Amino acid sequence: MTNQKPVLKFKNKTFRRSFRLAFNGIKLVFKYEKNMKVHCFASVLIVIFGLFFSLKQTEWLFLVIAITSVIFAEMVNTACERIVDLCTSEYNELAKQAKDIAAGAVLIATIGAVITGSVIFIPYLIEWLTN
Fold first, then answer.
1. Rounded distance between C-alpha atoms, residue 60 and residue 66, angstroms
2. CA torsion 87→89→95→98, rounded to 10°?
3. For residue 33, how far is the Cα from the chain centroid?
4. How far apart (Å, rounded) are the C-alpha atoms in residues 85 and 96?
5. Contact residues for 81 (Cβ-Cβ < 8 A; gap 6+)
6. Percent of the chain having pLDDT more than 90?
7. What are the boundaries of each domain within the chain?
8. SS3 assignment for 84-109
9. Is 112 within 8 Å of 69 (Cβ atoms)?
10. What's the CATH number for 15-130?
11. pLDDT at 63 over 80
12. Can 127 be counted among the known catalytic residues?
């Protein structure tokens, strides 16, 4: 028995290259996925509102987690869709289920983000509207 690591054909050879490929993945999702553009537009609006209302540090933390969760879920959803499309070009019930489940994960993350944003911003909006 040898203690050699297996040689992986597509393994990144450098840490720097790993980052370059990861950033390329982010760029691809922004370029080709309409929903990612919607999520990012909403995120920019949330940041603007946060600056306008001078959110507390903890509130920013929760918003960053919520925004990151939605963007992460969208990227995983996109990867799942690409993998399924690569595996089959004809209708397959399991392929459909995989895509639906991944899309459901994005929906759950988005609902959580909307709830988080509502809990944070509604009191500020009420105070702003009543003053």
1. 10
2. 70
3. 12
4. 10
5. 99, 102
6. 85
7. 15-130
8. HHHHCCCCCHHHHHHHHHHHHHHHHH
9. yes
10. 1.10.287.3610
11. yes
12. no
| Active-site residue, selected from the candidate residues 74, 81, 90, 93 | 74
Name residues whose C-beta falls within 8 Å of residue 42's C-beta, 6 or more positions apart in sequence.
none
Rounded distance, CA 76 to CA 66, Å?
Answer: 15
Quote the tokens at residue 106. 């994005």
Residues counted in the chain: 131
Distance from the Cα of residue 117 to its chain's centroid: 16
Which pLDDT value is given to residue 75? 97
Three-point CA angle 43, 47, 53, nearest 5°: 140
Instruction: Count CB-CB contacts under 10 A for residue 54.
Output: 8
Q: Return d(Cα 41, Cα 33) in angstroms, integer.
A: 13
Q: Are the C-beta atoms of residues 18 and 12 closer than 8 Å to each other?
A: yes
pTM (two decimals): 0.85
